[in-house]
Amino acid sequence: xxxxxxxxxxxxxxxxxxxxxxxxxxxxxxxxxxxxxxxxxxxxxxxxxxxxxxxxxxxxxxxxxxxxxxxxxxxxxxxxxxxxxxxxxxxxxxxxxxxxxxxxxxxxxxxxxxxxxxxxxxxxxxxxxxxxxxxxxxxxxxxxxxxxxxxxxxxxxxxxxxxxxxxxxxxxxxxxxxxxxxxxxxxxxxxxxxxxxxxxxxxxxxxxxxxxxxxxxxxxxxxxxxxxxxxxxxxxxxxxxxxxxxxxxxxxxxxxxxxxxxxxxxxxxxxxxxxxxxxxxxxxxxxxxxxxxxx
Length: 295
Ligand code: NAP
Fold this sequence. Notes:
This protein is an alpha/beta fold.
């Protein structure tokens, strides 16, 4: 179809750095396949320019934005409204511009829970370890609590951030079974890994362009009984997942989560169900782009 480029709807992602992102491939693929007059662009924004970038998006009438590291929490004060769920989580990964009024949503929750559902993993009465206490970790924790997890141990580089998360989310969601530790508490982490069913990496450690790094402290080994979920999708097999696979653990990377959260963002922006028949080809396309090192 010959589309009027003057009426192109604009979407994009803000983050810093943005070298890892696959979102422009994902969204532009869907726009093309659904023959939509839309374009999606990466906007690398320096942390000190975040407020100006949000004002700019409003003035330029950008229709929607995704938000990635390190802005999922920091962006909230610059928005006009946030959804009930994003407010409970305390993080926004999707913004919709409704005639100049910016509303924040969190679609990472759905991305994470749908991915867990796909592997049919029952979390009831089990214990999970979450590495990280930022925007992604919050969506993971919200989702785990909704799935009746018994206990969550949060390990974070900055202990006070983990404690603040546990205090605030615990109060909002009526959940008290948190334990918070500094990421270098090696002995405690070993003990927790022996008892936990699920380990989630919600830090960017190991992400492109630093694939040789692992969020686990040196000398900490994984066990074969674990499910290890790394939210990172670029590279597809992080150092953490390599170690987990070597021990016989079940491993999941962030690619399905990326697809589910991205498609949900499209539903919000376009008010249009994205045909799920597209998913397998979209997934293969993203795997191919990653394998070719284009991202
Ligand atoms: P964020 O809000 O900036 O939070 C980052 C977290 O990682 C913080 O807890 C931070 O600790 C910790 N961290 C950062 N650098 C670290 C380092 N060098 N060593 C140890 N800990 C470090 O980021 P985010 O949005 O949650 O994203 C985290 C990761 O999840 C990214 O790789 C992102 O791409 C991925 N993610 C993927 C999906 C998906 O759809 N697959 C969705 C969401 C997130 P401090 O508190 O000490 O700063």
